Amino acid sequence: MSDAPLVGIIAKPASGKDIRRLVAHGSTFDNNEKINIVRRALLGLDAAGVTRVAYLPDSYGIVERAAATANPRLKLMPLAMPIVGHASDSTEAAQRLRDLGAAVIITLGGDGTNRVVAKGCGDVPLVPVSTGTNNVFPRMIEGTLAGIAAGLIATGVAHNGPGKPRVIRRAPRLEVSINGEPADSALIDVVSSNQTWIGARAFWEPSHLREIVLSRISAAAIGVASIGGALFPDACDGCSGAWIAVGEREGSARTVIVPIAPGLVREIPVQDAKLLAQGESVTLGRGPSTIALDGEREIEITDASAAVSVRVDPHGPRVVDVEAALAAGAAAGVFVRTRSPEVNPTVE
To answer: Of 105, 195, 260, 276, which residue is most buried, by most CB within 10 angstroms?
Structure first.
């Protein structure tokens, strides 16, 4: 196996195209825009000294089309895996990249895409580029900068070390168990709904919400995660998660006004809420329901006696701080070239 650092890319055509483009005002990242983002990321990787890239193949050929016009000096290797057109493709791709020894993985998608990648990547750090609907985990990052930052991590220029700013941070996640058995996980939010069928998967109606568990509190979040920042402003960007019971009850007149989806601001009635410490668990109310993970309904609970618990796990995926990585590269002098002084010939 080559000693040259390997970078992975996971970009799926299906991300960023759910029903919230119809019922709300979610951004649409078509496949051509994803090609543009990947093209810039490849050029950034090339400039940072990366020579090998492995990627999730797809029916649209996002990475291949991106490389065709950019012509980077990279060896591009599609992962040798079957493609079934399901979220499990991203999980398997992440597992394969981990097993191949990838130093970092660039992802294109929203919270849902990164959730399934995180299930397979282990400790391989992620550079999550936002192209989804709810984008609390990934951020809007220019593709070139994402590629350069990933390249600085892969080549060892930017790294965590004593006395240095942290360029890779550990994100929390939420572990879901049913009757004491592990069921699934989420990166940002777990929501129980009074609807008992999965349907269109996405949430956009406040009346469908029952209980919410958040892995973090942020003042600048979209979707149900925005409720945490409205209720607990002093805990924003700290180490706490939260549990929130939604709905009206006698003696409780508290509501929050939040962006429940892109461009869709709603009043949400709150029965009760509390902060959760890292490692703390909460048991959801029993009864038939559906459980959504990072904005998409994934689990149907038909047994009224089933006990669903959610634990705030501090040991989630490792994430690259792009700004810190670029600053580390600048501090190491990789963006500066020093020219030798010209020697003027002696005039006789």
So the answer is: 105
Q: How far is CA 298 from CA 102, 191, 203, 288, in A?
A: 29, 10, 12, 14
What is 173-313's CATH number, 2.60.200, 1.10.357, 3.30.30, 1.10.10? 2.60.200
- Along the 348 residues of the chain, how does pLDDT read in single tens digits? 467 999 999 998 865 545 444 444 455 678 899 999 999 999 999 999 999 999 999 989 999 999 998 888 999 999 999 998 888 999 999 999 999 999 999 999 999 999 999 999 999 999 999 987 657 899 889 999 999 999 999 999 999 988 888 999 999 999 999 999 999 999 999 999 988 766 555 666 788 899 999 999 999 898 899 999 999 999 998 899 999 999 876 666 789 999 988 888 999 999 999 999 999 999 999 999 999 999 888 999 999 999 999 999 999 999 999 999 999 999 999 999 887 776 665 555
Q: Is 230 exposed, middle or buried (0-12, 13-18, 19+ CB in 10 A)?
A: middle
Residue 47: exposure state from Cβ atoms within 10 A (0-12, 13-18, ≥19): middle
